[in-house]
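Hi team,

Below is the intake form for Act minimal PKS chain-length factor (CLF/KS beta) from Tamaricihabitans halophyticus. Please confirm the fields before the structure is written into the shared record.

FORM ID: S-0412
PROTEIN: Act minimal PKS chain-length factor (CLF/KS beta)
ORGANISM: Tamaricihabitans halophyticus
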Amino acid sequence: MMAAIDGNTPLCTGIGVVAPTGIGVESHWQAILGGKTGIDRISRFDPAAYPVKLSGQVRDFVAKGRVPGRLIPQTDHWTHMALRATELALSDAAVNPASLPEYEMAVVTSSSSGGTEFGQHEMTRLYQHGPSWVSAYQSIAWFYAATTGQVSIRNGMRGPCGVVCAEQAGGLAALGQARRLVRSGESRLVVSGGTDAALCPYGLTAQLASGSLSTVDDPETAYLPFDQDAAGFLPGEGGAILILEDAGRIGERAQQDAYGVILGHATGFDPRPESARAPALRATLARALDDARVDAADVDVVFADAMGVPELDIVEAQAIGAVFGENAVPVTAPKTLTGRLYGGGASLDVATALLSLRHGVVPHTVGPRRLAAGCPIDLVTGQPRELDLRTAVVLSRGYGGFNAALVLRRSRN
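The structure came back. Fields below:
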């Protein structure tokens, strides 16, 4: 059963991408379809002393001229990318915030690391020169809510604003909260999604603590989710910002131009490993479908979390197989071209899923060639697969047990 598009239905009307695969929707989409990787040796600093030397970097991004000059020294690279992505998303949606009631516009983003690089620079100044050298903006630039605050201030959005800190799963949780704001009638427009940027010595060191990063030096084989040779994942930076609007207040033309509808959402958290209880992802996926009032048979594609850690890949593949049937639905993980973007990763997957629904194409997963035992999924590899796509599911998990699922439907019949 499908929900109708009516008042308080949260439509995605705009997408802004700043990612290793490109800046802007079209650049990103063409890179995804062409299997053009954004993975390369880390260049933001010399990674020679670190076991992980590869990442997905946004190589063409320049804050100057794209971010207000006064904000550049006051905020982190992570916020710079989000401000640019928001600008692109608003333009894509043909929205002028100045024309809308300020208290009916909201901002909800996700963040995993906050302003890591800014914080590292200021701590270096502290230890090398003393407290008088530390920027007065250190107290706000590193803060998880800095991006939400700056987007809100810059665009005059004074409705409910917040930030979700749930690592990679936070991108879906933020969009879930944005959906609730629209459905409740509290907000007519919500800026949501997220970016992240932890490619600095301090940030990479913190990531190494998980033990899940790949130390393989070959960009073609370093990140191989669901593969027999999976050895962990690669980090990345960037993400996507999406504009959600109330379908009842944007007009028929805007409805037709929209990318799609957020039909359902659910979150969960894994039990303690010693509890012997099952991981939560299967139940989270099932609850998201229930929330969307969608049967498993109605789902046309799944965008996997794709951790690249063998035991976690099996957990995800078996959850997908249990809900949809073994090899019953195409599964894809375009994030092998970007690395895992933490607070920005899930929203970028949602952006890619919406583009897939619009164009009727399932992007292929670049890298994996030999499916691991215990992964009963139809992983799309080799080349994109053209299909009549109507409904997609996006899955995401974060370090420590966070997990989330989002159900999307294309808005065009």
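SUMMARY LINE: DSSP finds eleven helices and 16 strands in the chain.

Thanks, M.
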